[in-house]
Specification:
By secondary structure, the chain is of the alpha+beta class. It has one domain: Beta Barrel (Thrombin, subunit H). The protein has one helix and seven strands, in the order βββββββα. The termini are far apart.
Length: 144
């Protein structure tokens, strides 16, 4: 990602597990470029991270995803001006271009950085929602 490119933070995803969704950690929707390094294949793919949690992320790849689940990967991305490189494994393949990655072997320092990042994303989303609610309240009070 170019240093001038800004990652977009979108609205929240489901915060609690329901149905087949067994995640223990809340996900926050994001929109930023990422590189997936396929460790055993010595290859890389580009794509966009769609959501992020302490346990993993969901990525839409630019090209067809060439390997199966449980493939070891590393994910590299920038969000809120900070670089991240996290190890993981392909946990789910949703379609030819969408994969779920579970993070592995995260040091306590990296875990803390990801926790802080997710909290910042959550706070930004809440502030945007509060602003939107206030603007809607003003607009509604101005109507005859």
């Amino acid at each position: 990602m170019k240093s001038t490119e800004k990652a977009q933070v979108a609205s929240p995803s489901q915060a609690t597990p329901t149905g087949r969704d067994r995640r223990g950690a809340a996900r926050e929707e994001v929109d930023t470029t990422a590189v997936i390094f396929l460790i055993n294949v010595v290859s890389r793919l580009t794509g966009r991270i769609l959501d992020l949690s302490l346990g993993g992320c969901r990525i839409r790849t630019d090209e067809r995803f060439p390997v199966g689940i449980y493939t070891r990967v590393e994910i590299e991305f920038h969000l809120e001006g900070l670089p991240f490189r996290l190890a993981g494994v392909i946990q789910a393949i949703h379609d030819k271009h969408m994969v779920g990655i579970r993070f592995l072997d995260m040091s306590s320092r990296k875990r803390e950085h990801v926790e802080q990042l997710i909290e910042e994303i959550r706070e930004m989303r809440e502030m945007k929602q509060e602003t939107k609610n206030k603007e809607q309240g003003i607009a509604n009070s101005e109507k005859p």
